[in-house]
Amino acid sequence: MVAETFDRSLWSAITPPGPDLPSLRGEVTADIVLVGAGYLGMTTALTLAAEGLTVALVEAREPGWGASGRNTGFVVPTLKKALSPANVRAAFGPRRGEAFSRMIGGSGTRLFELAREQGIEGAEQTGWLQPAHSGAAMAANAAQVAEWQALGFDVRQLGREDVAARTGMDGYHGAMLIPTGGQLNPLAYARGLARACQQAGVRLFAASPVTGIARDGLGWRVSTPGGSVSAPRAVLTTNALVGRLCPAVDRAVIPTRSFQIATQRFGAETQARVLPARSPVADTRRHLFAARWSPDGRIVGGGLVHPGPGRLARTRRRFEQRFARFLPQLGPVRADYAWTGTVAVTLDALPRLHRLGDGLWAPIACNGRGVALTGAFGHELGRFLAGRVTAEEFVVPVTTPEPVPLRALATLAPYAWLPWSEFRDRIEAERPS
Ligand SMILES: Cc1cc2nc3c(=O)[nH]c(=O)nc-3n(C[C@H](O)[C@H](O)[C@H](O)COP(=O)(O)OP(=O)(O)OC[C@H]3O[C@@H](n4cnc5c(N)ncnc54)[C@H](O)[C@@H]3O)c2cc1C
Q1: What whole-number distance in Å separates Cα of residue 370 and Cα of residue 68?
Q2: For every residue of 205-224, which 3-state class applies, written as one string?
Q3: Does 399 map to a domain?
Q4: Buried/exposed 325-339: b ≥16 CB within 10 Å, e otherwise
Q5: Which tens digits make up the pLDDT trace of 130-151?
Q6: Within its chain, how far is the Cα of 213 from the centroid?
Q7: Which one is predicted more confidently, 247 or 432?
Q8: Is the per-residue pLDDT at 2 higher than 70?
Q9: Gap between the Cα atoms of 119 and 136, Å rounded
Q10: CA of 74 relative to ligand 1 center, distance in Å
Q11: What is the residue-averaged pLDDT of the chain?
C-alpha cells in the first residue's frame, strides 16, 4: 500500500481553496449523473449543462483529487510521441482519425480560452517543447511536425541553437514546438472548473464516494453512503481510480504510478538561465526528462515510480540527482515537495468510450496526456450524450471494455524495463548523427 500524497503536493500548498460543496444527501434526480470530478467529469458536465440538461456530478473526495489536481500541468496538444495523426488514422479509420487529430490539435487553444473565460490563475500559453535526444528522434519529430502542419496546425521544428536558447540545455538535436501548448497550475484549473460547474447549475457533490450503480426503472441509480442520484443516463469519469466500482473498466487499463517533485525555490537570475522561455519540456527519451517552472520559482517534474515499499524515498533522491544532472545550472537540488498520482494507460495509448449498458458509459481519456485532451474530449462527449452526434460520428469508437492480457505483468513492465530504457536512451544520445 502506497501512502496517499494529494495533500503533500506543491499544488495543494499554493492553490487557494475551491468552492464550498455539499455532500450528497437524500434522493436526487437528474437527466444525467456523472461519477468523478476530474477534468473529464467537469468539462463533460459543463457541456451537458450548456445543452440544457440537468446534471449531477458526484465526487468521492474533492474536485481534482485524482490525477487532475496533482499532475505536472503540461498543456500538450498532441498524443504520446509515437502517435502521430497518421497512426491515429490507421487505428480509427480516415474520417474518425482526422476528426480525433483535429480535436487534439485544437485542445491547447480550447483550454487556454476556457481558463481566460473562467479567470483561472496560473495558465501560461508559453508553448510546449519536445526536444529530440537523438538523430532518429529528430527525424521522427520532423515527420510529425509535417503531419500537423498538413492538418493546418501551427507546429514548428526547432534546430539545436533554438532549443538551447529556449531551454538553456545543450545536447538536443532539435525540438518540436507547439505554440498553442503551455503550462498551468493543475489544481487551480480543477478548482476553477468546479466553480464554473456550480455557476452553470451543475449539482456538484463532494465527499460522496459512489459505492454502487444499479438499474432503476428505465435508468440508473448511483448510490453513496448519504444518498443517491437517479437518472436515465450515468457516466463513470473515474479514470484510473474506478477500482471495485466497475471491475470490467478497471481490468481494461494498466494503472501506472507517477512520481513528482518540486524543488527548492530559485531566484530570477537562475530562472533567466534555465528554461528561460517558460515552455514546459518533455523530451523524446523512453524514460523521458520532463521539467517546468512553477509560479513560485521551483522546478517541477517527475516520472515513473515502482509502487514497492521504501521506493518513494529512493525515487525522491533519484529525481533530485536527475534534475541536477540535466540542469547543472541549478547546482544542488532539494525536493521540497514529493507526491504521486496514478495514470490510466490503455494498450494503444488512445482514449476509449466504453458502453457498459443501456445509458451507462465509461470514458477513459488519460494515458498521461490528459490535461488538454480531457477538455476537448469532455466537450465532444457532452455533445454525444446530449444527442448532438451519433455513435458513428463520435471522435472515438464506442467499445466494450476488454481486459488487458497478463495485466499484473503489464503493470510491472514499465518499471522492470526502466534500466534498459535508460541504457538505450544513453547510447542513442551519444551516437553521432
Ligand atoms: C503525476 C501525474 C502527472 C501528469 N502530468 C500530466 C501533464 O503534465 N500533462 C498532461 O496532459 N497529463 C498529465 N497527467 C495526466 C492527467 O492528469 C490526466 O489525464 C487527467 O487529469 C485525467 O483526468 P480525469 O478527469 O479523467 O481523471 P481524474 O482526475 O483521475 O478524476 C477521476 C475522479 O474520479 C473520482 N472517483 C473515483 N472513484 C470514485 C467513486 N467511486 N465515487 C466518486 N468519485 C470517484 C476521483 O476521486 C477523481 O477525482 C499526469 C498524471 C499524473 C498522475
Answers
A1: 8
A2: ECCCCCCEEEEECCEEEEEC
A3: yes
A4: ebbeebeebebebbb
A5: 999 999 999 999 999 999 999 9
A6: 26
A7: 247
A8: no
A9: 42
A10: 14
A11: 94
Q: 204: domain CATH number?
A: 3.50.50.60
The pairing of beta strand 219-223 with beta strand 212-216: antiparallel
Ligand 1 neighbours by CB, cut-off 6 Å = 35-41, 58-61, 65-68, 70-74, 76, 209-210, 237-241, 245, 258, 260, 341-343, 365-366, 368-372, 374
For residue 374, how far is its CA from the centre of ligand 1 (angstroms)? 10
> How many domains in the chain?
1
Q: How far is CA 190 from CA 125, 167, 196, in A?
A: 17, 28, 10
Mean pLDDT, rounded, for 89-103 = 96
Query: Which residue's C-alpha cell is 478548482?
Result: 191
Rounded CA-CA distance 57/392 in Å is 26
336 closest CA partner among 9, 118, 38, 49: 9
Query: In this model, does residue 267 exceed pLDDT 90?
Result: yes
| β-strand partners of 183 | 74, 124
Residues spanned by the domain of 168: 6-427
C-alpha cell at 166: 529556449
Does residue 74 fall inside a structural domain?
A: yes
- Residues 229-259 have pLDDT tens digits of 999 999 999 998 889 999 999 999 999 889 9
| pLDDT one-digit tens code per residue, 279-336 | 999 999 999 999 999 999 999 999 887 666 677 888 899 999 999 999 999 999 999 9
